[in-house]
Design goal:
Elements lengths: L3 E5 L3 H9 L4 E4 L15 H13 L3 E6 L8 H14 L3 E4 L2 H10 L5 E3 L8 H9 L4 E3 L6 H10 L3 E8 L11 H6 L17 E2 L13 E3 L4 H7 L3 E4 L6 H17 L5 H10 L5 E2 L1 H4 L18 H12 L6 E9 L6 E5 L5 E5 L4 E2 L7 H8 L7 E10 L3 E2 L2 H20 L23 E5 L8 H5 L5 E5 H4 L11 E5 L9 H14 L3 E4 L4 H5 L5 E4 L8 H9 L4 E3 L6 H6 L5 E8 L2 E5 L3 H6 L23 E3 L5 E7 L3 E5 L4 E2 L13 E5 L5 H13 L18
Parallel strand pairs: 1-2, 1-10, 2-3, 3-4, 4-5, 5-6, 6-7, 7-10, 9-11, 12-16, 18-19, 18-30, 19-20, 20-21, 21-22, 22-23, 23-24, 24-30
Antiparallel strand pairs: 7-9, 8-26, 12-13, 13-14, 15-17, 24-29, 25-28, 26-27, 27-28
Helix pairs in contact: 1-2, 1-9, 2-14, 3-4, 4-19, 5-6, 9-10, 9-12
């Protein structure tokens, strides 16, 4: 069974372009809670019309509600889903854990899809969300063929893959760069695309674009996807013009239908429609490197002839028609009848006038069939027509036309009728109240060298978080007093899990009692190891119901999103103990590509990738990404030879008493580039509520995000 083709519909015209060119389904935004709020999207009337237009033609419609939402926004987001469900939307894509849990409990019959913004890239994460009632998982764009095959083999629900279009530099759902630099949150559908700007790696920003990936093109991989069990291939492009949607949808639909790869001409048309220095399929191949990157000039011309031809074709609105079978009976003394059936199981019968005796020429079956086949201007085309006509009868052309119109209208009503779905009351939040009068300090380090006896003696932090890879260097616990917690990698793959499980077991044997959970896929990895589970910032906790969702997952605390304002954190109902980052360089991106390797090679002695047994590499040395203003963003190596980009300025709130009045149970000091001595100084400043010094930021806690 071939995968479903899912096309973007950023506007009503783009929707028509997608449908007319062969899309099996479209995804679109309606309302304020979708990850492409900059697209034209749909008004209330346009959304209802879009559902009717698509369902009449056998095309499914998926609504994107895939942004983080605040407590105040949750009722409106729920109402959007309720109305969409009543109108007959086929599924809703969700990112926010709180909204997901709320929809699952209030609208149990509405299909939910896990947006790629949920950052799911392992079988465990896919199974975890499937167990909660999700029917499809949109996996990360960075997944290779091997990763995808493994997830398909081990996931009980449908798997969707991005096959064509823009690639974000950061894992979707984990990017804070647009928010922290410009106040426009990618998690809220307002990404300003800072990855498309020039930067320098350990050098001034000139004309290099180390964050600007080429567009993905997996047109030649569709047969491979179908064989491994991919349920849906998605085309990106809700911000692009309708003609672009028409071209790429037409080509991908043809490739899927014919079970082949693209010709040279088809590849050329895909590239003409839109590309950034060509395309890449390296993530699918499991490869990384500088060859994946490219740009597109701002004044790049559109392919006028290609787009004009595409527009003329879809504007005729006749490329996509539904085959129907007709059966008409014209008998003496009884009303004539017409039955119309489609291939989806719908069948309707309408009646017309009683035929009269013929005065001159009698109606015959061939004439009746010819009249019934005149379905031009509708969404239907006649496949077979069966007529039963008694001799000597007459039925006017207008009566036959009316009979045909009534039958097709009745079929349309049947095809577009929304399914009956339950709507249950909104469940109350748990009664638990984990509000604290003042938070206890916690500390996270990047390297063991940042831990010192002086640091641990200062106020004795409630918890110390250490990366799991660094735990492997320990022979014993660094000290007594705090709770020792291992931090799991933010990004990993199924193949890494045996080694990670071994490291977790060793951490437990050393005396570590807690694990920091930053991804849904971490949960099956740690089950059975008797750790206390704490949520990290990667979970993007944005509302009270997200806390409740994680409480149901048996987490004992959770770090809230650093994109929330102080007042929003204060107003969260703390059904779970809450933590917030109050000091440190906040993470802007985590990237599948190693930026250092792409620029210079990682090996200190020559070009090439770093190999652990070869000793130190450039990744572990101080490296920075420099923007056009001269701001330097530290680059830290991340598990799996990835890169984590840190903010250029550390967050500093020691002199802001507000963070102590939010009901938080824990306040985290996040150490990244600091020396051991600097770590001690920062802790002392927070104990003393010392005023800020040096270059720092207040983050988003006061100004918030769009």
């Amino acid at each position: 069974m071939r995968p479903e083709l899912l096309a973007p519909a950023g506007s009503p015209e783009a929707l028509r372009a997608a449908v007319q060119n062969g899309a099996d389904a479209v995804y679109l935004g309606w309302g304020a809670f979708n990850a492409r709020r900059g697209a034209k999207n749909f008004s209330d009337e346009e959304f209802a019309a879009a559902l009717a237009y698509c369902h009449e033609r056998g095309v499914r419609v998926f609504l994107t509600l895939n942004t983080l939402v605040t407590d105040r926004e949750l009722p409106q987001a729920l109402e959007t889903a309720v109305q969409a469900g009543r109108l007959g939307v086929d599924a809703v894509l969700v990112q926010d854990w709180g909204l997901f849990g709320l929809l699952r409990r209030t609208l149990p019959d509405l299909p939910l899809h896990a947006s790629t913004q949920m950052s799911l890239f392992t079988s465990g994460g896919a199974r975890e969300i499937a167990a909660d009632g999700c029917e499809r998982v949109v996996i990360a764009r960075e997944c290779s063929a091997e990763d995808t095959r493994t997830i398909c083999e081990n996931c009980p629900v449908e798997v969707e893959v991005f096959a064509h279009g823009a690639l974000c530099m950061c894992y979707s759902g984990q990017c804070g760069m647009s928010a922290l630099i410009g106040g426009r949150s990618g998690n809220r559908g307002r990404c300003a695309q800072p990855c498309r700007l020039p930067y320098g790696v350990n050098a001034p920003a000139k004309k290099a674009y180390p964050l600007s990936l080429k567009d993905s093109c997996l047109a030649g991989r569709l047969e491979e996807m179908g064989a491994m069990g991919v349920s849906c291939v998605k085309l990106e492009g809700r911000m692009k013009r309708p003609e672009y949607v028409a071209v790429i949808t037409r080509i991908y639909a043809r490739l899927l239908e014919e079970g082949r790869g693209p010709t040279a001409d088809e590849r050329a048309e895909l590239e003409q429609a839109f590309s950034r220095s060509g395309f890449t399929d390296w993530y699918w191949q499991g490869k990384h490197g500088a060859a994946m990157f490219g740009t597109r000039p701002e004044n790049a011309p559109d392919p006028k002839d290609l787009f004009e031809e595409a527009r003329r074709a879809y504007e005729r609105d006749s490329l996509r028609t539904v085959p129907v079978d007709l059966s008409c009976s014209v008998s003496a003394g009884v009303p004539c009848t017409l039955t119309v059936s489609d291939r989806d199981g719908h069948s309707v019968t309408v009646t017309g006038p009683v035929p009269e005796a013929a005065r001159t020429r009698a109606l015959d079956g061939l004439e009746l069939e010819a009249r019934l086949r005149k379905t031009g201007g509708t969404a239907y085309r006649c496949d077979t027509v069966v007529t039963l006509v008694d001799e000597g009868l007459s039925l006017s052309a207008s009566a036959v036309n009316a009979l045909r119109r009534d039958a097709l209208a009745a079929l349309t009503a049947a095809r577009t009728a929304p399914p009956k779905r339950r709507e249950l009351p909104v469940p109350p939040l748990p009664e638990a109240d984990c509000t604290a009068e003042a938070p206890r300090l916690t500390i996270s380090v990047t390297r063991l060298e940042q831990l010192s006896p002086a640091l641990l003696e200062l106020g004795c932090p409630a918890r110390v978080y250490i990366p799991l890879e660094e735990v492997s260097r320990l022979e014993s616990l660094p000290g007594e007093g705090p709770e020792w917690c291992a931090v799991l990698p933010r990004v990993w793959r199924d193949r890494d899990e045996p080694a990670l499980r071994t490291l977790l077991e060793r951490a437990r044997a050393l005396g570590f009692t807690g694990v920091l959970i930053g991804n849904l896929g971490h949960l099956p990895l740690v089950r059975g190891l008797d750790f206390h589970l704490y949520g990290d910032y990667g979970l993007n906790v944005f509302n009270s119901r997200s806390l409740a969702y994680l409480k149901d997952k048996e987490l004992e605390s959770a770090c809230v999103s650093f994109e929330l304002r102080f007042a929003q954190i204060r107003d969260l109902k703390k059904v779970l103990r809450a933590e917030a980052i109050v000091y440190g360089r906040l993470p802007l991106m985590i990237t599948e590509n190693c930026l250092v390797q792409n620029e210079t090679g990682c090996r200190l002695d020559r070009q090439g990738p770093c190999v652990p047994e070869d000793g130190p590499c450039r990744c572990g040395q101080p490296n920075v990404l420099v923007d056009r203003t001269g701001a330097a963003f530290p680059l830290l190596p991340a598990y799996g030879h990835r890169t984590e980009i840190q903010n250029s300025k550390p967050l500093y709130l020691a002199d802001r008493p507000e963070h102590r009045r939010l009901g938080l149970a824990y306040a985290r000091l996040r150490f990244t580039t600091e020396t051991a001595e600097e770590c001690v100084s920062v802790v002392q400043n927070y104990l003393d509520a010392a005023p800020a010094a040096g270059d720092f930021t207040r983050g988003l806690y006061e100004r918030g995000v769009e």
